[in-house]
Amino acid sequence: MRPLLVLLHRWFGLAAALFLFIAGATGAVISWDHELDEWLNPRLYQADTAGAALPTLALAARVEADDPRVRVTFMPQAVEPGHTWMASVSPRVDPATGKLFEPGYNQVALDPATGAIQARREWGKVSLTRENLLPFLYKLHYSMHIPEGWGIELGMWFMGLIAMAWVLDTLIALWISFPKRDAWRRSFALRWKAGGHKLTFDLHRSGAMWVYPLVLMLAVTSVSMNLRDPVMRPVVAWFSTLAPSPFASRSVAPPEQPIEPQVAPERAIELARAEALRLGITAPVGSLFLSPEFGVWGVGFYEAANSHGDGGLGNPWLYFDSRTGAPAGADLPGTGSAGDIFLQSMFPLHSGRIIGLPGRVLMSFMGVVIATLSVTGVLIWARKRRSRVYATGRQPQALPSGAALGSTSS
């Protein structure tokens, strides 16, 4: 059994660790994406003028009046002092062609006091310019920028499948790292003074064992981040009843046939406030978003300074049918079944935000660890391959062009 597990671990590493290396390296950076993005792009975040902010729905109307090709699909309902009002937009359908307009941007930042547009950008664009660098790294982290095809988010599925195999490989690594019950201490030893291959081997095996629970947690939460509705929810539903999800239970409308809202944004906010009062939610309305694909209004509740949900299981959200105003679901952190709470914990755990700033520091460190495990794995494999070649008296052959960095076992 052990030789088979070693082989599986080795070949998973060779096939996937290039992607895990990229995910780890980018994860170490995007733990601080908002801070770094603001530092690189002050025009997107820092308002030009001081003063009271205009009503948020009026700001949204200005965006759409300025460019009728777009509709505002995410709008903050409060603004931090000195900051811009940053909204997300999606293209409308061109009536002349029946296809979506191509405005060339999906984010817009306004001076909240004057309504003047300060900056626009296309979040997720493949570009290393200042304005695109952090969104580029963020999207690279979870999709490798693999484009959509046949109506499927291929990048999300690809990295989700990598994550599923990573979960299995992490369990295999635990088994093969403890070959003998009485020699378990060796699996935690780090021979710092030995250097060379011995230290490389220890960094790979023992380094992984010291942080093993965190590695396994990142693997599991990665599956949820990429394949929450098609994979994680059905699996969790085997063990626990789940509250209805407006995104798991509805059909997705084609981009060229969006579900036009019949409920005005003002009405959606009114409905949400009434429901929040009934549920005992005390935080103010923090943002409003529209999903034309699912026909849903979503309303989040949080203070402006806590829009990223630092601490605990995040912010509460209420959902309403955009055509009828009927309740369509809720995401209330810390409530529901064990399965609901498990799913609520996935992003806070993955990002480290569940414990605030210390968690983000820890996840940044873990990004470096994952990248290091990938590099040390391929170094171990390469050394063993050279040894086998010399032992058989053959010269090394060129590696296949598709060979990738990977991790191997002892």
Report on the structure:
- By secondary structure, this protein is an alpha+beta fold.
- The chain has a domain of 214 residues.
- 47% of the residues lie in helices and 11% in strands.
- The protein is built from twelve helices and eight strands.
- It has an eight-stranded antiparallel beta sheet with strand order 4-3-2-1-5-6-7-8.
- A hairpin with an 8-residue loop joins strand 1 and strand 2.
- Helix 1 crosses helix 6, helix 1 packs across helix 12 and helix 6 packs across helix 8.
- It is elongated and about 75 Å long.
- The relative contact order is 0.15.
Q: Please state how the strands of the largest beta sheet are arranged side by side.
A: 4-3-2-1-5-6-7-8
- List SSEs in N-to-C order: HHHHEEEEHHHHHEEEEHHH
Strand content: 5-15%
Query: How many β-strand runs?
Result: 8
Range of helix content:
40-55%
Low-confidence stretches: 401-410
Distance between the termini: 15 Å
Structural class based on helices, strands and sheet pairing: alpha+beta
Rough outline? elongated
Main sheet makeup = 8 strands, antiparallel
Mean pLDDT: 92
Give me the Rg, rounded. 24 Å
Q: Count of DSSP helices?
A: 12
